[in-house]
Design goal:
The chain is of the alpha+beta class. The model has no long low-confidence stretch (mean pLDDT about 95).
Length: about 675
């Protein structure tokens, strides 16, 4: 019989609906059941594309004997961390505080039935003792016995945790005026941890860290020291080149996998996440604009192509993830043997493809599930280096045929949740790439996503976090409001739509009303009327996605100057002061806030151009041409009226253009020809 998860919409929860475990979602019924029966809660948090979540499910949650123990001793709650990032943030932080180590997924937390504080925290436990860990069944019996016999100890630890959370929530903002010091310190730390051979930062496992790279790319253009500029640009460009050469990148279908298990970017964990690809799409597009690299433009175009081809719902919104596994094998969908290559390609195509992708070398991938040895494609020899005039054309033909052969395999599962915040990241990335690559079609798809969220996920003057199977659910979080507003502002730079500006302002006003910590500064992750949990986080650091505080701070500064809204600028300043202690101690973990700090210290340049429709394409091309961090530009047709705030004074008239170039609160005299505007830029 199906358990209570069968009524959910999350693909991750539905994966567990047929388990013999009596799973329940996080809900009042489950929490009341635990209280009434005095049973501890077993809280399991994961997501649909998580490989080790699948391993633990197969080993333990599908096992009748393990399920019997779980059902007898616990109230079992399963949570999709993408639907409930609030719960995930709280209990990941608890894991860090209790163990001194970062958590991960699956996150397995045993909670008291009344206060919901952790008894024991962990991640993956095996079915049988191995890896130096006890079996999950041993953990189940030992934790339940510990709960029955050591309640005073559990209560004391829980009280200490709640006190720590309380101090985190009420930490006072710094009175100091923010300076450039954290920016410079962050760049120093990132350069010091740079891997000069393979790019990226640190060793294995190696994550792309796109927000840190975005910060370094911006700083390479802001510094007045030529040697420093070259150094920072090299860190970014070398990293992007090595990632695009390696197995982190899908050389057939486009897009990036989650992270690399080695420092060479060779073998990834094979899930594909919308948020990773959105961040890297925007970064590669910016890097193309900054360096002129055609390679970066191609990677950006292919990544955008993957997003639109495989991740966009017919209604316009973007899905969340592609699974790492297919037919129970992680990565099996993506790897090839030389025999498979020979069957798919002509002899000349195969000869080139094998040399380019390394299939003439030792296998680099061994299927842990018995699928044998194979090759995960990566570029080991560029086609242009093979000494054949036809190598590039043969490689393109080979890529197309190999992709066609791969598409005949059983595909990884796709999580078709549409998340408001992640769609905001995708909108921003597509709009950015549309301008950098001269691809108006990307802006069209970004607008379709914006319209989807506005129509389906904005209800009762509030945003909802997730949409699936015709249902929008869960009160949205800070990230949702911040990322979506940021995406809409970027989209306005591609094509002016008053409804996008209005929606962005509405999102910002809702964030100020429901998330703003007016006394201490910064924004809480959950709204003031959210379900009461043991902690109300106020996260400043970037994680897998950028910091909502960092992104919203940047949005507030941009809109504050564009519209002349001082409240927005004041809220941004309060956020930076609240975050200053963390920026000072751990600057390289706060790249998104540091980008906002740069905008605060050097007010951004906003260009508003009123023009007739015939001049818009030429203006768009002019304004998108250069990579200038901190510059935003908006082309508003002359026939648009009734604009809000300072925009009301940015008037135009029939014939010609009127351009307003402002840096912070200082504006030049209006410019009335495209040639004069080009000279000024």
């Amino acid at each position: 019989m199906a358990n209570r998860l069968a009524r959910e919409t999350s693909p991750y929860l539905l994966q567990h609906a047929e388990n013999p475990v009596d799973w329940m979602p996080w809900c009042d019924e489950a929490l009341e059941k635990a209280r009434a029966e005095d049973k501890p809660i077993l809280l399991s948090i994961g997501y649909s594309a998580c490989h080790w979540c699948h391993v633990m499910a197969h080993e333990s949650f599908e096992d009748e004997e393990t399920a019997e123990l779980m059902n007898r001793l616990y109230v079992n709650i399963k949570v999709d961390r993408e639907e409930r990032p609030d719960l995930d943030k709280i209990y990941q932080t608890a894991h860090q505080l209790f163990t001194g180590r970062a958590g991960g997924w699956p996150l397995t937390v045993f909670l008291t039935p009344d206060t919901h504080v952790p008894i024991v925290v962990g991640t993956y436990w095996p079915k049988e003792p191995r890896y130096g860990m006890p079996s999950f069944k041993e953990v189940l019996t030992q934790v339940e016995a510990y709960y029955r016999t050591h309640r005073d100890e559990i209560d004391a630890r829980g009280s200490a945790l709640l006190e720590t959370f309380s101090r985190m929530e009420s930490a006072a903002a710094s009175d100091a005026v923010p300076t450039r010091a954290p920016l410079d310190f962050a760049c120093e730390r990132l350069v010091a941890s740079f891997d000069p051979e393979h790019g990226g930062f640190g060793g294995a496992p190696k994550f792309p860290r796109p927000y840190a790279l975005e910060l370094l790319l911006e700083e390479s253009r802001r510094t007045r020291e030529p040697e420093r500029a070259r150094e920072l640009e090299h860190v970014v460009a070398h990293t992007l080149e090595r990632m695009a050469d390696g197995g982190l990148y899908d050389h057939l279908g486009g897009g990036f996998f989650r992270y690399s298990v080695d420092r060479r970017w060779s073998i990834p964990h094979f899930e594909k996440m919308l948020y990773d690809n959105a961040a890297l799409l925007g970064l590669y597009a910016d890097a193309h604009a900054a360096t002129g690299s055609a390679r970066f433009a191609r990677v950006a175009a292919e990544t955008a192509g993957w997003m639109m081809r495989e991740m966009q719902d017919p209604g316009g919104g973007f899905y969340s993830t592609l699974d790492a596994d297919a037919e129970g094998r992680e990565g099996g969908f993506y790897v090839f043997t030389p025999e498979e290559v020979d069957r798919a390609l002509s002899p000349d195509e195969a000869a080139v493809a094998k040399r380019v992708f390394g299939l003439d070398r030792e296998p680099n991938f061994e299927d842990p599930h018995g699928g044998g040895k194979a090759w995960h494609l990566q570029i080991v020899a560029p086609a242009g280096s093979l000494g054949r005039d036809d190598a590039v054309a043969l490689l393109e033909s080979a890529r197309s045929k190999l992709l066609e052969a791969r598409e005949r395999r059983v595909r990884p599962a796709r999580d078709e949740k549409i998340l408001a915040g992640w769609n905001g990241l995708a909108i921003r990335a597509l709009a950015r790439a549309a301008r950098r690559l001269g691809r108006a079609d990307l802006a069209v798809d970004a607008a379709r996503a914006a319209d989807f969220v506005r129509r389906r996920m904005w209800q009762g003057n509030r945003l909802l976090a997730t949409y699936k199977d015709g249902r929008a659910r869960f009160a949205a979080y800070l990230d949702d409001y911040a990322f979506l507003a940021d995406g809409l502002i970027e989209l306005l730079e591609c094509r002016w739509r008053r409804e996008d500006l209005d929606f962005a302002v509405t999102l910002v006003e809702a964030a100020l009303e429901h998330f703003d910590d007016r006394s201490a500064g910064g924004f809480f992750f959950t709204a003031d009327d959210h379900e009461k949990l043991i902690h109300r986080p106020k996260p400043f650091a970037d994680e897998a996605v950028p910091s909502g505080n960092g992104v919203l701070c940047r949005v507030l500064i941009a809109l504050g100057h564009l519209l002349g809204e001082q409240r927005y600028l004041d809220a941004a300043e309060r956020t930076l002061k609240a975050a200053l202690p963390m920026l000072t101690q751990y600057p390289d973990a706060h790249a998104s806030l540091l980008i906002a700090l740069e905008r605060y210290l050097e007010p951004p340049e906003a260009i508003v151009v009123r023009a007739d429709a015939a001049d818009v394409p030429r203006l768009d091309a002019l304004l998108a041409k250069d990579y200038r961090p901190g510059r935003s530009s908006f082309v508003i047709p002359n026939d648009v009226g009734s604009l809000p705030g300072l925009l009301a004074a940015r008037t135009g008239g029939p014939g010609g253009i009127t351009a307003y170039v402002c840096r912070g609160t200082s504006c030049l005299a209006p410019i009335t020809t495209i040639e004069a505007l080009a000279a000024e830029l």
